Automatic annotation (TrEMBL):
Gene3D superfamilies in the cross-refs: Plant lipid-transfer and hydrophobic proteins
Keyword Signal belongs to the record: yes
GO molecular function: lipid binding
Bifunctional inhibitor/plant lipid transfer protein/seed storage helical domain: residues covered: 30-114
Signal peptide: 1-27
Family note: Belongs to the plant LTP family.
GO biological process terms held by the UniProt record: lipid transport
Name under which the protein is recorded: Non-specific lipid-transfer protein
UniProtKB keywords: Lipid-binding, Signal, Transport
SUPFAM superfamilies, sorted: Bifunctional inhibitor/lipid-transfer protein/seed storage 2S albumin
Role played: Plant non-specific lipid-transfer proteins transfer phospholipids as well as galactolipids across membranes. May play a role in wax or cutin deposition in the cell walls of expanding epidermal cells and certain secretory tissues.
Signal in keyword set: yes
Pfam families, alphabetized: Tryp_alpha_amyl
The organism of origin for this protein: Sesamum alatum
């Protein structure tokens, strides 16, 4: 189990570093989105069977920060870029908004088509 914790911690640091390099000029920030979703890493990577309360709070904060179509595209692109090369359980990413009882206007899908927003 400690290997998963170390792996998740390293991954969270990578997200924070990558998030600094991609941001939108307006309200949306990839770095902020990364910070908001970082409590979800263990669940998204299959380490936990359900998301934590902090994860759901982060998803809610992310959803509340999406105000325009540009924000939708930015969130989609950010999620794609920051999750490339990492093993995510696609079913967990897709189920996260429903499990947290939230409506997220953009799917958390590392292979999604960001041009449709």
């Amino acid at each position: 189990m400690s290997g998963k914790v170390v792996y998740c911690s390293v991954w969270a640091m990578v997200l924070l570093v990558l998030g600094q390099s991609f941001s939108h000029a307006n309200a949306f920030s990839c770095r902020d989105a990364s910070n908001q979703l970082s409590p979800c890493l263990a669940f998204l990577m299959g380490g936990y069977s359900s998301p934590t309360a902090a994860c759901c709070q982060g998803v809610k904060a992310l959803s509340n920060s999406i105000n325009t179509n540009t924000d939708l595209r930015s969130v989609c692109q950010c999620f794609k870029e920051e999750t490339s090369g990492f093993h995510f359980v696609p079913q967990n990413a897709a189920a996260l908004p429903n499990i947290c009882n939230l409506r997220v206007p953009v799917p958390l899908n590392p292979t999604g088509d960001c041009t449709r927003y």
